[in-house]
């Protein structure tokens, strides 16, 4: 933002800077928004109107990304040169990315103040609960929250507590529509997750996390080392349910067998308990043949492959199938939930491939398999019917 150059004496330069940025947002930025968004033109307090409605706030941020021209005179560096990238400091010393983070946090503060404002009369339960109402009920049931009474004099309000837990994890404009869902998560869970909050990019993912429940999360914490727990929360917190499902011994077996090769994809593997169930009784040498695709393939696929294919065929089948079908089609057939009947047809057809030259089975198998997967691409319906 292009800000006044006159310095204000203050004990807190950062606070003074924030104040100047907000002044610019409330003034020139909101004036320009009012010119391009008709609904804001009649508002006497454009900034307050935008901050009171997360949908409107998100729309304004998206408009800014699409249409920079009305704001470009504000987006200059200390030399007055236009800034066109979001990570370069403006004249005020903050980048566009950093200012957007400030705006997102301000929107969150305004929302939690409204959400947790004292109510004189409790809202009547809805016959058709909204997504947020279902999340609130789920959190209450799964996380055994105690009802928070009114704060005592001098104590933080519920809004203060929720905002304090959220604010350090809010930096991106895509988070704005998710703020109401984040605000319903237990404060301790938000604090434990830290930046892991940024892995939850949809309401469904937030609901799935809440649905895991306190016990599964605590079980995962008992099983994992502090380092692995931190990595899981930062990478894929929904994996906690899978870790809890495995238990300590089976988790340690899978971790020792495939983690070094899979890296952070290990946590994606743990998302599906059906996949883990299919893996937990298999010897390490078999899982090592599947390791490149264990975060993708379903439990049904694992079982079918291990039942129908020879050991040396396992990795070839997956590699050729993925390369021939492409990611989307491969996942639709062999992933979760996938298409088990169609996956079985592939494995059945592959078992009929016979090598012509003894001792060259792997080479011939790799040469002939693309024809099997290619037959499906040429005629999916006919392939499914067995033509």
Description:
By secondary structure, the chain is mainly alpha-helical. It has helices spanning 13-36, 38-41, 46-51, 54-66, 96-115, 131-143, 158-166, 179-182, 187-193, 203-223, 226-235, 240-262, 265-269, 273-279, 284-290, 299-308, 314-325, 327-334, 340-351, 361-378, 380-385.
Short description:
This protein is an all-alpha fold. It has 21 helices and no strands.
Q: How much is the radius of gyration in Å?
A: 27 Å
Strand content: under 5%
Q: Count of helices? A: 21
Mean pLDDT comes to: 88
Main structural class:
mainly alpha
According to DSSP, the number of beta strands is 0
Give, in order, the helices and strands. Answer: HHHHHHHHHHHHHHHHHHHHH
Largest sheet: none
Helix content: 55-70%
The stretches of 5 or more residues where confidence is low (pLDDT under 50) are 6-10
Shape call: elongated
The N- and C-terminal alpha carbons lie at a distance of: 65 Å
Describe how the helices and strands are arranged.
Layout: H1 13-36, H2 38-41, H3 46-51, H4 54-66, H5 96-115, H6 131-143, H7 158-166, H8 179-182, H9 187-193, H10 203-223, H11 226-235, H12 240-262, H13 265-269, H14 273-279, H15 284-290, H16 299-308, H17 314-325, H18 327-334, H19 340-351, H20 361-378, H21 380-385
Helix pairs in contact: 5-7, 6-10, 7-9, 10-12, 12-14, 14-16, 16-19, 17-18, 17-20
Keywords:
single chain; 387 residues; mainly alpha; 62% helix
